[in-house]
Amino acid sequence: MSDLPLHLAAPVPVPEKTREIDRSGEPVFELRSISHSYGRNKVIFDVSMAVWPGEVVGLVGDNGAGKSTLLKIFAGYQQPTGGTLRFMGKDVRFATPAKARAMGIEAVYQDLAIVDQLSLWRNFFLGKEITRPLGPFQLLSRRRMREEAEKAIAELGLTRVRSADEPVSTLSGGERQSVAITRAMHFGARLLLLDEPTAALSVRETRNVLASIGRARDHGLGVLYIDHNMSHVLPVADRIVLLELGRVVRVIDRGEVTVEELQDLIARRTHV
Amino acid sequence: MRRRSLAESLLSVRELPPALGLLVVVLFFTAQTANFWSPQTMTAITTVASTIAIVSVGVTMLMISGEFDLSVGQNFAFTPIIWAILFVSNGVNEWLALAVALLLAACVGVVNGLVTTIFGIPSFITTLGMFFVLQGLNNLLISGHQLIMFDPSLAMSMLGAKVGDTPFYTPLLWMFVIATIFWFVLTRLRYGNWTYATGGKVGPAKAMGVPTGKVKRINFIVSAVFAGLAGCMQFAYIRGVTQGQGQNYELLAITAAVLGGTSLFGGTGTIWGSVIGAFLLATIQIGLVLIGVPGSFYVTFIGIMLVIVVIANVRLGRFGSNQA
Description:
Chain A is of the alpha/beta class.
């Protein structure tokens, strides 16, 4: 064990009890036999997976396993060359990422979430400003947006944030992620896509972001958590989908394996 | 959550440092010269300041959304030249001529915006190209001559006449109107939020549904039209225009914006900061003449001050924030 990197050797906190997830209904999002090629280069082979409401699914794989392609398919940036996508029980096809967003699929990218120069409330409502018409113009309802942003962030528990007027540049990387996640929840997202949200974060920061993810899940959102390292997703994932060379090689249900078995799996697959 | 303290609120007012700078400069010249507050000096300072400020307001909108416009100085001559050729030389109705001239100025902005956003090249290059195009056109249109209008028309009086018994001219009033409108647009309208977001970080802005390309294209037009309009005011005030009018104005407008706290990288800046910056430039220009410094030394002084202010801004950048 001593040869392992620290984050693999350290004990991973996995909750004792398995949360019950109701998978009898329709999943939020489902991939059915999805395949994808870039020209002649096939990168995704017959992938089927689903995310149910209130569930955190970890999508884990090495670089080149096809994670980013799947993420792009989820977010509407890529249209799969084969298979079907189902959103809330209906077949869908997203022509653009904006269409996916409009349906409630929110991608929270680490450096694509927040505009540093804007204050917290302006960030929170960016692109979805509350306005009242002023002739042909849209007048910002500033007080209302301030109050709503403050309320949502207070519920999130970012205690360090004192006011919605605070510039976002004073927030840490983890807090920005948390703001982005809260914003997605506030605007009624159904599915949250997170791409390595804890990369380059301190331990305490990571815990805060994971807490935000937990809150989103408790709100009934489906969460797809993508990471190259299984130990990152382990603390929150209800299921882990292992991806290798464009194929799903294993789906690990938290109820199915013990902490020790998971640790073994990580140890054996140090490259994932 | 608590509201910010008074000190924090003051720190976050971006107009405060340039305003203090202006105050220091004004006090200095008041102490050094006997006639700083004379009507003549006031006329000189406010007319120089108001045209630079109007150009700078448009340039500031564009800079906040993350782009430059180096063609405003040439547009400052191009638009009044078109206006004057149409109505002074060819007897077209003055208002129609003004509308056509401003429409052409807008077309310059449209081309700047489309070329920059479609081909994804730096606006520095696009508008530098436009600078030369307009310079050539201006030369072609009046080839070294001066277009003079001895008898100011109604439109000209509205744009550049004396205001009653005051030492001030109408461009100063227009400047306040235009600055107030764009202050409102930037801080109170959704479009202002989008302008800040576009220049702040284009990726998240786009991801949040802000039409960043469109925002930039609109601001290119704003920058071009107000440069043209300010040029027309200058023509109306001087009652003449040469192709040399507005020389260096692209750089002065950017300098005024930067002195006023606008970032060269987009995402931050205020309208009133740029107005104060323009007054700072004009006060120094006129004040140096008053204390007997050779007029040409003014630009040297401005150059040194610009660099010092930017160094100070970078150093202090981690304090003070953006607009609320």
